[in-house]
Amino acid sequence: MEDSKTFEGTSDEHQYFIDDQTLCCLCGTKLDFKHEVDYMKLTVREDADCPCCKIHMKTKEHTLQ
Ligand SMILES: [Zn+2]
What we know:
This protein is α+β, with helices and mostly antiparallel strands.
């Protein structure tokens, strides 16, 4: 019997959201994040690799201002 329904509310939900974003959608392994700064184009490229599947999960580019 589980009688402990004392969730800490928003912080738990927030943590779950972050976990969902950083885990491989195929195998659930924690993704390896890399940030590559291109000083010529003034952009930061964000790559997420799964060390298990060896695949790129996402690539985002941010412009530095
Ligand atoms: Zn994976």
